[in-house]
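Summary for the steering committee. The consortium agreed at its last meeting that each partner would contribute one worked example illustrating the joint modelling workflow. Our contribution is presented below. We chose a case with several input lines so that the handling of multiple components could be demonstrated. No manual editing was applied between input and output; the record is shown as generated.
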Amino acid sequence: MPKFIITTDDGKQRISPDDPDDMLDFPDAEAAIKDAQVALAEIAHDSMPDGKAARFTVEVADEAGKVIYRATLDFAAWSEGQLDGKTKDGSADVAEQLDMGPRE
Amino acid sequence: MRRTGDVLGPLVTRLAAIGSLTESDIDALLALPYTLREGKPGWEIVREGDRPSQCCLILDGTFGRFKMAAQGAKQIVSYHIRGDLPDLQSCFLPAMDHTLSALTVGTVAFIPHAAIRHILEETPLLGAKLLRESFIDSSVTREWLCNVGRRSSESRIAHLICEMFTRHRAAGHVDQFTFPFGLTQVAISDSQGMSTVHVNRVLQKLKANKLISSHAKSKAITILDWEGLQAVGDFDPRYLHILH
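What follows is the complete predicted structure of the assembly.
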């Protein structure tokens, strides 16, 4: 089975395999990507509830290290006093809260 | 004490770890009839729906009991190592409600139900000691339910490593803090209800935090910080009911 190098980041700790033993076998890239997507949601679940903003990232690379897939999941929360005007719909300010500037 | 070279010795070691055995108990256990079989990972010893006429005693390797959910999703509900009798229940519940398969290369001894029933009927005190193994199996299932339902991913995996270490230690199968760990990350994800990528992340985290080190070639894990790993895993060995 092909091997994949999968990097995950919960905003606090980025984990990237530096030991070849930590590479993962999957039948194909599609299976690796599917599993990585599930992992993204699980990693977010582990870190909740914690703070007002977080970005979770997963990256799938092939055995040679070429990145073939990247996904991010953003979490943003507003408490009572902040629920005015432009942030009320909850869609505008994820990037601001993450202090990353405008999103692509 | 058990005689070295006795094929069924691991059963004696297991039952002696969870209860006291008399000399005649040991003689009766070692005299049980058996058939040996070896298998590779994926070997299904008994399948859901089967009506077996024998129980299996694990002599070597790691085995798992599992159930299949819709769309082929597998849930491993327990792991079994040397000395375990994972399907003792089949003496009482004729149809298997799960499948038992090898997760590593392994060896089992098949013991006919008739021989087990003979012990239960003729020597009920020893029979009760055998059943103790089955009750502990239920206790482990309760702990696993708690893991899957309420413990964080990091805690679950740390807990699993603590459990496997404690069980291997009772089976006399450890070298200080190093013990056989042939489970693949897929097998761990199937038991913990987690994606393989997430299992991979947590294992790397445990290594980065200097709680464990793993040795892929020898398929073993060394626990570097036993106290620390137990704390992360929220692990209290009481549910294993190991006496020493």
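The domain at 151-240 of chain B is CATH 1.10.10.10 (Arc Repressor Mutant, subunit A). Chain B is about 40% helix and 20% strand.
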